[in-house]
């Protein structure tokens, strides 16, 4: 992947051209949810910003598969406020909504607040990670290759729960530096892949949404994600993940998932 590549190219007016780097593991023509989540998170941060506030929670609703194509992004404020504001966003393709999202933007806590932390420190960043290797039916040349992975506990395809360090090899938007929120959102939608104990050759596992809540902004390029998935017959699946930087935990991610037999 070339150094000047990105997940998206800005076309102006809220339009973005999706590059092949956005493609998910199931098809070169359909996007992974990570870049899409990062794109709407970027829009939330840039919409009528209020000094001294931060986007603390983002929920992304995936309405249908997102094509690797030109997308339009829009955001509006539905509950304005100096300390707390609720934002809504939408991504469309050729006029049809493919993603809807919401975000809480809240005032940053005072700097003299004593920090409260309960989670243990994340595991050390591994020096290397196993290659993808042969992975029948999986498209690895898009998002999977655009991210750099350092698995803590095994190889790709290993049954979860799982823990990985990861960072993007390319920026979200060409010519821009990613923000901490964008970095977290771009990774977090991979939680169900990292933490699943379901055999993807037998089961279709698709998340309908992603919620990321950050009690502080992550620092640095590398993020650690520890994920696990629970599923029940007659129910559905739920994936939970913790997100951390080298200093400790920064937040949580949650996904609701459809589980069905592979056709």
From TrEMBL:
Residues 23-105 form the Acyl-CoA thioesterase-like N-terminal HotDog domain. Residues 130-259 form the Acyl-CoA thioesterase-like C-terminal domain. InterPro entries: ACOT8-like_C (IPR049450), Acyl-CoA_hotdog (IPR042171), HotDog_dom_sf (IPR029069), TesB_ACOT8-like_N (IPR049449). This is Thioesterase family protein. Pfam families: 4HBT_3, 4HBT_3C.
């Amino acid at each position: 992947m070339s150094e000047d590549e990105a997940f998206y190219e800005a076309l102006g007016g809220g339009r973005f051209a999706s590059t092949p780097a956005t493609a998910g593991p199931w098809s070169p023509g359909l996007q992974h949810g990570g870049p899409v989540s990062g794109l709407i998170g970027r829009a939330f941060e840039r919409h009528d910003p209020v000094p001294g506030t931060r986007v603390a929670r983002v929920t992304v609703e995936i309405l249908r598969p997102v094509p690797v194509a030109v997308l339009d992004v829009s955001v509006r404020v539905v509950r304005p406020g100096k300390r707390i504001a609720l934002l809504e966003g939408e991504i469309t393709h050729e006029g049809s909504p493919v993603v809807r999202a919401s975000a809480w933007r809240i005032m940053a806590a005072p700097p003299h607040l004593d920090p409260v932390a309960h989670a243990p420190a994340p595991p050390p960043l591994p020096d290397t990670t196993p290659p993808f290797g042969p992975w029948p039916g999986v498209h690895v040349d898009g998002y999977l290759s655009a991210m750099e992975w350092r698995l803590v506990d095994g190889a790709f395809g290993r049954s979860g729960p799982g823990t990985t360090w990861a960072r993007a090899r390319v920026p979200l938007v060409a010519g821009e530096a990613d923000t901490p929120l964008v970095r977290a959102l771009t990774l977090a939608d991979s939680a169900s892949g990292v933490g699943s104990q379901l055999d993807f050759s037998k089961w279709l596992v698709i998340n309908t949404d992603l919620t990321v809540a950050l009690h502080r902004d992550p620092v640095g390029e590398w993020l650690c994600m520890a994920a696990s998935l629970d599923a029940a017959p007659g129910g559905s699946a739920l994936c939970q993940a913790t997100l951390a930087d080298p200093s400790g935990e920064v937040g949580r991610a949650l996904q609701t998932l459809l589980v069905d037999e592979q056709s």
